[in-house]
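dumping these here so i dont lose them again. two proteins, back to back, each one seq then structure tokens. dont judge the mess
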Amino acid sequence: NHLVRGRYRYRPIPLVIVVRVGRGSSDWIDVIVAMSDKYNHTTIFEAFWVYVSEAPTYHIILEVLLVLWIIKLLFFSERYHPNKEKDKPTKEEEEELIKDWQPEPLVPVDTYPTDRPSEDDPVVSGIAGPHVTVNGIQCLNLATYNFLGLLGNKSINDIAADTIRKYGVGSCGPRGFYGTMDVHLKLEERIAEFTHTEESIVYSYGFATVSSVIPAYSKRNDIIFCDESVNFEIQKGLSGSRSKIVFFKHNDMNHLESLLEEQNKIDKKNPSKAKKTRKFIVAEGMYMSSGDLVPLPKLVEFRNRYRVPIILEDSLSFGVLGATGRGTVEHFGLTPDDVDLICVSMSMGMASMGGFCTGKSFVINHQRLSGLGYCFSASLPPLLTTAAIEALNIMENSSDKFQKLRDNAKRMRTLLKGIASLEICGYEYCPVIHLRFKEPGDSRESDQQILDTIASDCQEQGLAVVTAKYLELEEHKLPPPSIRLSMCCEHTEEELTHAASVIKDVVSRNITK
């Protein structure tokens, strides 16, 4: 409908345009203008003249310019003809271009360190349980995150085998697209029951758990207060959130308090912006790069005082700390309500893969449409799901495993005291022990080479030991080189005594005091 002024002021004239496009040279356009008889058979030309005579001048000028521009584009613009002979290079020019062309590498040369896996790296045969075969040598396994000794457990293996017969080996789809099976729902229910939380959500990849959780809640212009020594998974979550990241010194609660207080003053000056800005505290229960224990009660105090939710990555504590292995929260005598979100990788204490996040229902449900690793990744294979369920059953019925694991961690630290030129890092009950130089050498490369030699010599003497590896160019704060030892509750006191003796002997032979 078109409003025409003048004699037919503000009276609508129906305008019907029928466009038909054919093929080849028979393309044509039919325009049919239908006028109602009740408008005194007004022709389109009369209506157009009334419009032109009463329309503002700048309207007419603009429309004329647009028509001229369209005509220029249709009839006078130069078209590209790739088949023209003048556009083809000569044979000499082609040869010159080919000679000068230098292909770019598929992976930038300087992106990753040169010590990537090669054919000379140790080869493991069989299950990496408390003992493992490396390059044909039977070794005590101090390299694998098998804290509770569940890797190779017969009941878990039998459950996984039965699951394969019933469900196959994979789910072949994300959780929202026919990838959810009854075992996934059962695992989420069991995790919530075990952790005493309202609800949990399962991810198919441990790395993707916390790196998906953080961006699901924190967006652009939000603020995250984060420990500077968090692991690489958390760092990826921070970058994916595109939030403002404020790092505080490692486990320095005074520094964190000063940052929160400073932000609180800023919020008071601009309360309207403060209402739109979400703030979070992100930390690990026990830090992967050092083994240090987070002062969680202090974080909870800050959470309540400044109303800043806590996202806790508790992979290294789950199945380790607490009387029943529920992690850092239980260790400090807190309740799950004191921490807003708890993220755990199931590849450490549960002899499976994937990860989970647990908390209140209204918080967890948000991830089912916002957690990238949940929405766009194939769901956890059913056999690994039932293996995780069985692992939880064992953890509930064998609580003595937790105490034995903590005793082994503390015993190994005691046995290693006085080791030449190296310091023992981390909390006394942390199952991951880092051995670092007390006084670093002239270069990181030389220190790393010495530690790699120590690990190799230990392996030759029946001790599977590794050095910690990092993406050196991508870490926010690159940890110092270290030998990393992983404890298992299945290790005996005699085995640990022998291991400590071997490590001390190898270190003394490779490090000049």
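---- next one ----
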Amino acid sequence: MDKTIFVMDPNDLNNYLSSRSYVSGYSYSYSDLTLYKKVSSSIHQYDKCTHVLRWISHIRSFIMKDKCPSKEASSKHFITEDMSLDQVILNTLSEQKEIDSLTFAAENGFDHQKLVGAIKSLLSLPKEYIQAEQKQISVWELTDEGKSFVANGSYEFVLYSAVTKDGILQKDLMKMPNAKIGFSKAMTLGWLNIDKKHENGPTVFRKVDSATDVVKTMLEDINNKKKVDEKKIQDLKKRKLITPVVTKFYLVTKGTNFNTTIERPEADLTADMLQDGSWKEKSFKEYNFQAKGAPITSGYLHPLLKVRTEYRRIFLDMGFSEMPTNKFVENGFWNFDALFQPQQHPARDAHDTFFISDPEMTGASKLPADYLERVKTTHESGGYGSTGYNYDWKISEAQKNILRTHTTAVSARMLYKLAQQKEFKPVKMFSIDRVFRNETLDATHLAEFHQIEGLVADRNLTLGHLIGILYAFFKKLGIEKLKFKPAYNPYTEPSMEIFSYHPGLKKWVEIGNSGMFRPEMLLPMGIPKDVNVIAWGLSLERPTMIKYGINNIRELIGHKVNLNMVQENPICRLNKV
């Protein structure tokens, strides 16, 4: 490099560099580092000097790749091998005005990241030993696809070159690699046309006698650090042929309290300092009493569990006892037949229920024989004031193992157990657990969800008692506006859908289902005739989604759940009355 450039003004330097290739075969020397150091320290003067900026980027790329002559450049007498990096920085600043971290690391053979770490360490000290300004320079580099364009040509030019003067069948041309993209680009550029009515089939011809691979040329210019029109740059970026590479570095200068001797404040007051009195001469690191402590590593409760806890607490406050719900695998008898649900009911179809393949059936000996016979008779010919369903009831259907479709199967088992007691005692029971249905997955439905169920068994209960307890239950949730609509369930009569007025939506929305268990379900168990059972149920997921503002159930439970949501969601506080 000509030494006269050191005294050139910015425009002269820009013109000097524009007339020379500083990429291919460029002889890199210590003079480059010296000039680079001079230019980068006052880089604002060269904002409009395109060739200077490209030269800076080029030299910086050499520095990043450790191609600079570091041995020749690092002969400063104030740097020793055993000196720490932060001390090296201070000693260097005592001899010169500023340090460019990237150049300095290259000159002295330091790892740039470690040097940046030392700079940040000095900046963290209470005294302002140094000041550091972060800089960055951005250059375009070719992607792997862009490099292949430089080596082989663009897709459109390669495709154009494959078309002879006599044309080529479109189907043969489209067999070439990346033909679809190349054909589209070549047609847009007006290089090719297609004769769809050709006697041999759709045929592609050249529309122009010759073409220039402009894309390849632009990529070569970018690779050689030459100027390319900004609009063309953006087109190449959209095609993912180039990518921006940002290099960050620091310009370090002396601070207001600059000193080559580092005085680090003590973090702790030790017993030795108190005994020998040395604490009087030492400075101590300030304590931040407002700082938060380190977070304790622990587990986190899922929102479903938080809402479940609130519902469970409400039931317990109302004097209910919890039913055991640990049997996910149930048989058809307790899940359907005991509830007076006919064996041909659509809910028992494989489209709605998950059937277990192994073991496929429950042994007949595990089902209460007398009770099973009464259930069979009730289904086939009726009884207890009912005509039944008038079909041939099959024990094989009742023995099939399934994933339970509702927790009412648990209620049936508990009511049968209650009926076997010598003396009937009123009960209030509830359950909250998982159930499974072969649903089509969407934003509001999963194949598994949680069901909340409550029931009361006592003598001479009526529909009025059910409505009263529903008002009491939902009032504890902060819901006081209720409406009830007649509905149908196989095992409850009468049945009611529960609606609540939603002030946000300004309309009535369904929040649950309820009813009184039918005599055809209760009397075969052995429940006294004057005992009625009222029950209601709702899902756990819907109120949880409303509480935590989740619109898609798959973001609440399943493999798409964001673990940060689980860790950061607030505690559940229901607006209880």
